[in-house]
Amino acid sequence: MTVDHPLSKHSGVVKIVEVGARDGLQNEKGVVPTNTKIELIERLSSAGLIHIEAGSFVSPSWVPQMADTPEIMKHLRSNPPAAPTGVTYSYLTPNMKGLTNFIHYSSNTGVSASEHASEIAIFGSASEGFSQRNINCSIAESLERYRPVVQKALENGIRVRGYVSMIIECPYDGPTSPVKVAEVVEGLLDLGCYEVSLGDTNGVGTPGTIGTLVNYLIKDRGIPAEKLAAHFHDTYGQAIVNCLVALEAGIRTFDSSVAGLGGCPYSKGATGNVATEDLVYFLKGTGVKTNVDLDKIVEIGDWISKKLGRKNESKVGTALMAHRRSDGSRL
Ligand SMILES: CC(C)(COP(=O)([O-])OP(=O)([O-])OC[C@H]1O[C@@H](n2cnc3c(N)ncnc32)[C@H](O)[C@@H]1OP(=O)([O-])[O-])[C@@H](O)C(=O)NCCC(=O)NCCSC(=O)C[C@@](C)(O)CC(=O)[O-]
């Protein structure tokens, strides 16, 4: 029997941003064939995921795994998904060169970037140590670097999402102050980001620390909950309960990664995001609508884990596949 959480009455449809093809694959050691990435993205959209991070226009010497992003973008733009409609693909851009490449490859397919449903994401940090290691500049320099990027993107009709990493603790600098997180979130929103995703990059957050932070941002700093997203890694097994805390605080956008793929190349020991299967199962269990087909996501998680030769990190995916194997039934 499913008992709806009291939130289900007024939570509306939650937005899920699937980051498996970017955050999930950027740290894979072996080469992941471009065709596999494209198949993953297309299967994810066919399962009802309509916000999908498809790659990064970052320096290939910093993140070699994302070097084929132009090919992926070209393919996706010339082969839009048949269903569902309204899929948005997002690409990380760390500087003006990234945005220039994004515009170049999107206009090379005969459709202008503004006409097509694709957007960019810029990524800052709440800790200086991670900012230096990830994007080779200070927090203040990163916001200045992003200013003309966002301005040009908006002039071209391209929506910009923001990220702030290390919201709880940084492996290089130690605990992060909520005040610093708020300053970076406000800085990114002031630049023109429509939403800022809160990255617990190394998954150390707990309901206590995440709850304190999100309530500080929303209640004390007056940042509208609808401008925030939760991007929780599951390194310490806290991601789902942290999603519940964020949901209770009013956040309605959640980033997740099929099969819990992932990790950040510049955050040692960081593992994948909350698995999309676990998130969808959890939301369904609280009575919150998602429009995502759990059955299909579980199959995709099983497929990509086998393709990559890695363990499926989704508990729900693993349990439902085992159940299916034992009685041969659908999920
Ligand atoms: C920001 C830079 C470029 C600075 O790196 P830099 O070395 O200071 O850059 P530079 O301007 O001196 O350029 C160095 C070389 O890179 C090239 N270059 C420069 N920019 C680009 C570009 N956009 N696209 C392609 N090439 C580029 C540039 O042309 C040059 O090439 P060379 O002349 O040596 O042949 C670098 O640090 C970088 O690319 N960093 C990205 C790191 C990254 O992608 N990290 C993972 C994503 S963040 C994350 O995962 C966290 C998140 C978002 O998921 C949230 C969370 O969990 O917390």
Describe it.
- The protein is an alpha/beta fold and 331 residues long.
- It has one domain: TIM Barrel (Alpha-Beta Barrel).
- Helices cover 43% and strands 15% of the residues.
- Strands 2-3-4-5-8-9 form a 6-stranded parallel β-sheet. Strands 1-10 form a two-stranded parallel sheet.
- Helix 8 (207-220) links the parallel strand 8 (195-200) and strand 9 (228-232).
- Helix 2 (34-46) packs across helix 3, helix 2 (34-46) runs antiparallel to helix 11 (294-308) and helix 3 runs parallel beside helix 4.
- The chain is globular, with a radius of gyration of 19 Å.
- Residues 112-116 have low confidence and may be disordered.
- 3-hydroxy-3-methylglutaryl-coenzyme A is lined by residues 23, 26, 56-59, 61-63, 92, 94-95, 97-98, 101, 123, 134-136, 163, 165, 199, 201, 231, 264-266.
- 3-hydroxy-3-methylglutaryl-coenzyme A (HMG) binds at residues 23, 26, 56-59, 61-63, 92, 94-95, 97-98, 101, 123, 134-136, 163, 165, 199, 201, 231, 264-266.
- It catalyses: (3S)-3-hydroxy-3-methylglutaryl-CoA = acetoacetate + acetyl-CoA.
What topology emerges from the helices and strands here?
Layout: E1 15-18, H1 20-24, H2 34-46, E2 51-56, H3 69-78, E3 88-92, H4 96-107, E4 118-125, H5 128-135, H6 139-155, E5 160-165, E6 169-170, E7 174-175, H7 178-191, E8 195-200, H8 207-220, E9 228-232, H9 239-249, E10 253-256, H10 276-286, H11 294-308, H12 315-327
Parallel strand pairs: 1-10, 2-3, 3-4, 4-5, 5-8, 8-9
Antiparallel strand pairs: 6-7
Helix pairs in contact: 2-3, 2-11, 3-4, 6-7, 8-9, 10-11, 11-12
Pathway: Metabolic intermediate metabolism; (S)-3-hydroxy-3-methylglutaryl-CoA degradation; acetoacetate from (S)-3-hydroxy-3-methylglutaryl-CoA: step 1/1
Protein name: hydroxymethylglutaryl-CoA lyase
GO biological process, one term: L-leucine catabolic process
